[in-house]
Amino acid sequence: MKCPFCASEDTQVVDTRANLEANTVRRRRKCLKCEKRFTTYERVDLKMPRLVKKDGSRSDFDRDKLLGSMMLALRKRPVSTDAVDEAVDHIIERLRSLGEREVPTNRVGDFVMRELAKLDKIAYIRFASVYRSFETPDDFREAVQEVKATKKRRK
Predict the structure, then answer these.
(1) 8 Å CB contact between 116 and 127
(2) 64, 95, 123, 126: most buried, per Cβ within 10 A?
């Protein structure tokens, strides 16, 4: 592991901790050259399915792009970053569990909608307005009615 401060490859692991929930390993490291400390995270890199867009083109799955679109919907909403990361992890788990090499983007959008509905109703409506291409106020009204209906079913 290269030191991010001096680029030396001579580093030493000082502490290791496993995070079982996120399937990651956190390592505290010390550079033996400049003696600065830094943290690294290890995550299993499993092959994600390719995404098939509406126009038929294909693209690689991008966790940052998924996170970015969710954060845009959640902008200025009272939802913790940890909760958003957990929701993204759930979506990724679902995609992997499909066992498919290619997945349509609308399926990913459905997964995002489910997670946003759990996190924040306003973010759900924001995302739905773009995802479903709302064109009239009635489209918004229907989405709000959906949110209200799911709230009543839970009670």
Answers:
(1) yes
(2) 123
For residues 107 and 146, give the distance between their C-alpha atoms in angstroms, rounded to a whole number. Answer: 19
Best CA proximity match to 71, nearest among 134, 146, 129, 127: 127
* Residue 87 burial class via C-beta count within 10 angstroms: exposed 0-12, middle 13-18, buried 19 and up: buried
pLDDT digits (tens, 9 = 90+) for 74-88: 999 999 989 999 999
Query: Phi/psi zone of residue 42: left (φ > 0), alpha (ψ -120 to 50 degrees), beta?
Result: beta
Indicate the SS3 state at residue 48: coil
Is residue 123 scored above 80 in pLDDT? yes
> By three-state DSSP, how is residue 19 classified?
strand
Domain definitions of the chain by residue range: 11-43, 50-154
| Single-letter residue type at 89 | D
Q: At residue 42, does pLDDT exceed 60?
A: yes
Which candidate, 123, 116, 112, places its Cα nearest to that of 77?
123
Report d(CA 109, CA 44) in Å as an integer. 24
Nearest to 47 by CA among 108, 91, 99, 107: 99
